[in-house]
Fold this sequence. Notes:
Blueprint lengths: L1 H12 L14 H15 L6 H7 L2 H29 L8 H11 L6 H32 L1 H15 L10 H6 L3 H5 L2 H13 L16
Helix pairs in contact: 1-6, 2-4, 3-4, 4-5, 4-6, 6-7, 6-10
Amino acid sequence: xxxxxxxxxxxxxxxxxxxxxxxxxxxxxxxxxxxxxxxxxxxxxxxxxxxxxxxxxxxxxxxxxxxxxxxxxxxxxxxxxxxxxxxxxxxxxxxxxxxxxxxxxxxxxxxxxxxxxxxxxxxxxxxxxxxxxxxxxxxxxxxxxxxxxxxxxxxxxxxxxxxxxxxxxxxxxxxxxxxxxxxxxxxxxxxxxxxxxxxxxxxxxxxxxxxxxx
Length: 214
């Protein structure tokens, strides 16, 4: 969860939470996010939550506080990014920056509240689903060692690494990664796709076939 949260925050809105630091710090945003998810789930089993919300007591009181933490975090990100854009600092290419750059030309497209909701949607959609899929992927290659060997060989060949892959720092390997490089890793892509087929993170997605005769 920590790795996927860091990843989606970096890709989604250019912020490094540092939750994978050696000391594994408690990140207020991450803690609030987990608490909000837990309390919303409990609502399905607690028929009295509307009363608790109206009286601002119990879990609903905690929920209100944690939602405030989330809103404060996202509002601060948007404020900082707007200052960067006003200062012509457009070096970041995350999704939030793209939304806000588009908003400069079409000012009425997104309000700050809508941008905040978009940030949280990125996190909701990307954190748990990615963590679940990666967990199943690791499980699948562990029970199928020949697949693990193929993924290893492909990674080694594409990145131009030695057989042992020892002696390389994280930074050295990261520099060799790019969209173009990863797009050539067809076996890895196939293994991930098969994992999603066998163990979909969101299994109950219904599709309706439209009018095929028109």
